[in-house]
Structure formats: structure tokens, C-alpha cells
Amino acid sequence: MSRNVDVPRYWYNIVPDLPVPLPPPRDPLDDRESRIGLLVKILPSRLIDQEFTSEHWIEIPEKVRELYRKMGRPTPLNPAENFARAIGRPDVKIYYKFEGVLPSGSHKLNTAIAQVYYALEDGAKEVVTETSAGQWGTAVAIAASLFGIRATIFMTRASYRSKPYRRYLMQMYGATVIESPSNLTELGKKFLEQNPEHPGSLGIAIGESVEYVLQEGGVERKYLPGSVMEFVLIHQTVIGLEALQQLPEEPDYVIGCVGGGSNFAGLTYPMIGMKIKGEGFTKTQFIAVEAAAAPKMTKGEYRYDHPDTAGILPLVKMYTLGKDFVPPPIHAAGLRYHGAAPSLSLLIKLGYVKPIAYPQEEVLKAGLLFARTEGIMPAPESAHAIRAVIDIAKKAPPNSVILFNLSGHGLLDLDAYRKVLGENIDTTSISF
Ligand SMILES: Cc1ncc(COP(=O)(O)O)c(C=O)c1O
């Protein structure tokens, strides 16, 4: 299915094409330091430019394109005929874009490579981030190793202990992985004083990463975020731009899972942009799938909120469950996030994207059915998209075309499948 495609020369920025202006980030009305000012200190400067740019197309640095190619881009776009047959709709054409071929196992490497490149441009000696399940941390560890720069990753204690293989993977790539809360920051110490065995949270780990970068003024250390920010979504558009070259026909439905929104935006924004401008995809429906355990798009409010629990980052307008929302510990940890990226939230509000939510067990069953018919074990996050594909395919008119993003493989998530579905699940018991 990979016709003669190459890695795109530009990333796409949907913001200037949105039908109404994107509400800008805001500082909260308190007496603490400006959060927007803080962002400028901790992020690589080119990322700040990209966050606020009105350019439609952003040139991908040649070095980044070269590394995209070495890491496996363009990624394949394949038909899933066996899967379509297994769900009783052999007439429906299902295609998937497979980001799991990247050595990080997910799409996260697309932005990690770009962000580390820009950090180096600013003279950084170390990149810093947080991770819970470890997908983002792994991508940063790999990108840092490619550029020969130090990576420090604050990993929530619960995951540090329960997901040792992700931690080993980051460590094997040379990253320093720190159990969060830690003694390296004042924030970490405060939580450890309250409870020396504190399980940690993504909010605390973000707070620790930011404080650690600020300890030396954000000169040699730079903070790298894994989702939600507009520049992350921009970098991920390589996925959709490649898909535009690879697709044999315009899909009726395009589907992706949403944690913060980056893989979904990556696949769909080049197409939604064309729809907005009347250049194509006029009949295509775009469907964003979330975990029922973190239902920000289907049950959240559209309002200004902090993207992080500690309230260190600026307020952004988004669908949110509130920054203090603590989702139950589901296995698709990458979807346990309280908000959806501002541009995606606006597109939902305007009706360009339809959100839908599914509970964990059905999702993992759908993932297993995909593995047993198409040979790829999907990440539990990506399996949310697969679950939606089943419902949509079943109701679709004859000969419909569906495209979805298989954002990652699940080879390090086998424990999730085993714990929820058991060890010897019979194929006949997987029915929809
Ligand atoms: C494989 C995979 N898919 C999806 C996501 C969700 O993130 P986003 O919505 O930013 O794509 C994650 C997050 O960790 C992930 O690891």
C-alpha cells in the first residue's frame, strides 16, 4: 500500500485555517509568576515560535527528516481485510496507518526527534520530561540518544514500579529515570514528607520536571512536553501528510484515539484542513475516541483550565474534566488525561470532530481480535480506535471506507491484556 512516498518537507499547522480564532492561552489571576513567561524559559525557543505561529506550513529541518527516514518513516498504510471479514463487513475497506513500526513503538518519536533537535539548537545539554506509562519517556530517551544529549525522565512512582520494562528501555537508551516524587525538587520533597511511599502522579512529575529545568534557569536544560501543545500536534502531522500520499481513496470515516490529542490530530488535521477549505474530505466524518474512564470530550466542560494538575502551565481553553480529576487506573495509561488539546476541543465544539468513549474491557477485546486477524498487537490506547472501527463498520453503508490510526504496538502491554482478559482467551468468546 506504500506507494512511492517520501517523508513530507513541511509540517501542517491547522490553527490559521480554523473557521474561528483559537482562544489563546491565558495566565490565571493570581499573584504567582506568569505561566506564559515560564513556558518561554523552559521550552526550546523554536517551539514557542511554532506554538503561536500563523504560518500554515513549517519546514521540517533536513536533519529531522533524515532521522525520520532512519527510524522507519514513511510508516505503512495497510488494508485490514481479515479484520473486516472477522467483524462481518468484508465489503467495508478498512485501512490503518501503523506508527508502531518506529523503534519507540509509538508515534511519540515524531515530535521527540523535532523537540530534541530544537533544544540542541538553543545550546541545551540536557532534556527533561515526565512520563507515566513510559511511551513518551521512551521516545525522548531514543531521540536524546540519537543526538548524543542527556535525558532525565521523571517517572511516576506507581509506573516506575509496576512497568519495569518501559523503565529498562529508557535506561538502556541511556536516560536517567527518576522515581517521582523525588528528592531532587522542592515539590517532590513536599510530597515525600507527606508520604514517603507516595505513588506519584503525572501532575507531580510535570511539576518536578519544570522545577528541575528552572533550577539552572532553563539555559542548559530544556523541558519537552509529549502532547496537548499545538507544536506537538503540528509535528505529528507527518502521519496525515504521508497518509494523503498513500490513501487509494478518500475515507468516509477517519478514527483515532485521544489522550491529549496528538496522534489524532497528526492523522486528521491535514484532512480536516482540506475539509474546512472545501478542498476535499467534504463527506468524511472524523471520530475521536477516548477512554470511558477519562471522558473529557464526551462529558467534560469546554472552558479554560490548566493542562497540568499543579497549575504550573498557562490556562488553555479545552474540554476538561478539571485539572484535579483523577481517573481510575486503566491500562491505556496514555489516555488517562483530563483535557483535550485546545485546537481539537474547538473542532469538537464546532462539530468537525465527533467524540465517542469506550470502556476498557471491550477495547482490549477489540485489540486482541485485531492481533489475531492482522498480526499486530495494538497498544491499549490504539485499541480504543479499533473498538470504534467495529461499531462504525457494522453500521456503515455498503462499501464504505474507514481509516484509523494504529498509534502504537502493545508488545510491552501484554500484562494489560492478560490482567483484563485472562491468559487463555478463546477467539470465539470475542464477539461484538
Ligand atoms: C500508543 C499511544 N497512543 C496514543 C496515546 C495518547 O496520546 P495522544 O492523544 O497525545 O496521541 C499515547 C500516549 O501515551 C500512546 O502511547
Blueprint (SSEs and pairs):
Blueprint: E1 10-12, H1 35-42, H2 45-52, E2 57-59, H3 62-70, E3 77-79, H4 81-86, E4 93-98, H5 108-121, E5 126-131, H6 135-147, E6 150-156, H7 157-162, H8 164-172, E7 176-180, H9 186-194, H10 202-214, E8 221-223, H11 230-236, H12 238-246, E9 253-257, H13 262-276, E10 285-291, H14 296-299, E11 301-305, E12 316-320, H15 342-349, E13 353-358, H16 360-374, H17 380-395, E14 401-406, H18 414-421
Helix pairs in contact: 3-5, 5-6, 5-11, 6-8, 11-13, 12-13, 16-17, 16-18
The structure holds pyridoxal-5'-phosphate.
Pyridoxal-5'-phosphate binds next to helix 6, helix 13 and helix 17.
Task: Describe this protein's structure.
The structure is a single chain. The protein is α/β, with parallel strands linked by helices and about 425 residues long. The chain has two domains: about 15-60 and about 110-225, Rossmann fold; about 65-105 and about 230-430, Rossmann fold (3-Layer(aba) Sandwich). The protein is built from 18 helices and 14 strands. The strands form four sheets. A six-stranded mixed sheet has the order 3-4-14-9-10-13, sandwiched between helices. A four-stranded parallel sheet has the order 7-6-5-8, with helices on both faces. Helix 6 (about 135-145) links the parallel strand 5 (about 125-130) and strand 6. The model has no long low-confidence stretch (mean pLDDT about 95). It binds pyridoxal-5'-phosphate. Pyridoxal-5'-phosphate binds near residues 133, 260 and 381.
